[in-house]
Amino acid sequence: MTELSVVIVGGLHADARKAAVDRLLAEVPDSVALHHDLATAAAGTVVRTIRDVTGIVSAGEAPLVNDCACCALREDLVPELRRLAEAGLTRLAVVELWDSVEPKAMAEVVISGGLTLTGVITAVDPALVLPYLGNGDDLADRGLAAAATDQRTVADTFARQLEYAPVLAVADSPEADEEDQELLAQLHPTARQVPIGHGGLAGAAYPERMSPWSDVTGGHSVSWPGWLGGDSTSWFGTAGWSGSAGGASASRPGPAEGTSATPTGPAAGTSATPTGPAADTPASPPGPTGGSHPQRPPSPLVRAALAGFDVEAAAAAQHPACALLPAEADAHGVSTLVWHRRRPFHPERLYQALEDITCAAARSRGRFWLADRPDSLLHWDAAGGALCVESVGPWLASLPDAAWEMVPPVRRAAAALDWHPEHGDCCQHLVFTSPGLDRDGLEALLESCLLTDTEYAAGRDAWKRLPPAFDTFLEV
Predict the structure, then answer these.
(1) Contact 47, 59 (CB under 8 A)
(2) Closest CA to 319 of 397, 390, 406, 417
(3) Beta bridge partners of 138
(4) Highest mean pLDDT among 60-64, 290-294, 351-355
(5) CA distance linking residue 166 with residue 9, whole number of Å
(6) What CA–CA distance (Å, rounded) separates 84 from 107?
(7) Which of 251, 331, 388, 410 could form a disulfide bond with 381, CB atoms 3.0-4.6 angstroms apart?
(8) pTM beyond cutoff 0.85
(9) What angle do CA 278, 283, 287 make, to 5 degrees?
């Protein structure tokens, strides 16, 4: 029986998403794509389709659960994936999310169902990144709401889709310029970007900027077991792309932890010229047992889809207390400002400046500290001119020592790296990314919202008596 791997592909950029899914179906034997169309939810059902590289294999309907299309998706997805796993005929199940469905929730559903999630990918058209980040429309107004109570906007939904996935499948968009590419890179600098061409399978299988040798190191053979049928033909040989008969390795390759995804060229001591098919030739099916027919190595997209995924680490990377926020950057007209201070905000002055701060950048996020709530870690999340502020619990400095044992290690490690002898982990850590960012003006505005020297010297008891301007935001 074939072990089923699951990869999630999502994103509001529907054409790019479909291109990524089509590429995976075309390149991975015995793969299928599951898609739940939530556009029919108003009629009381969600339409599920399963397709392979040739077209639709089956279709069905799932009833709404509690008038929530996303709930219906959750209830229907795991049983369908388990059915595919039990049949033993599918090697890769590509879960193609509907437009506004966010990958975090679905990744957690797949893992909780006892399935093997090997990748989460968001498909992106670089030319559309800024327009979507600047779109403050409600999803409901665009026909993209997943439930009657869905109050999300296009901008904040797209931002979370983009920032959660460790892999971005990037469409080759003729309209995208250097500024668009730089904005994408600064918004999610730790993401591995893989090309998918444009218009479905258009474009070369391996664009010049991505070398098929990028995962070949030290001249060793790297194989993907069970992929190419009964002949166990290796996709990589010890030199070039020559096949090897039988005895496939039990490990799947991928970039080593902490290494760059940038291609490094052929391994030392090997020829720079592949011995297999030319780079612009479609991948051929495996030859007969014996390995006499060379095979194309897996594309960067396929490698990314099967590299593995840690759902707990992904969640921690988005949590305000330990998020992997972008670093300072300034290139091609796009800037990222990292603003870090140890003094709390004056609640009234910050509240009065919220509109100017929120509109100063296409995207801003992080954690912040209010003087009248000195024990509360507050989350800042802004996109499309709209701001979400919420309390995500206490700062670690506010907890008794005995409670630290209940805090996840990644949270304790993040606090230790940012610890201050007086305030502990309490701080302002906000990051703003945008083309044409007025860094000096924004810094001056933020500084003006901090406590003055006199206010700061008055101490915490006096801070707590300041006007509680954020009660409406925090629903107190």
Answers:
(1) yes
(2) 390
(3) 153
(4) 351-355
(5) 11
(6) 17
(7) 388
(8) no
(9) 105
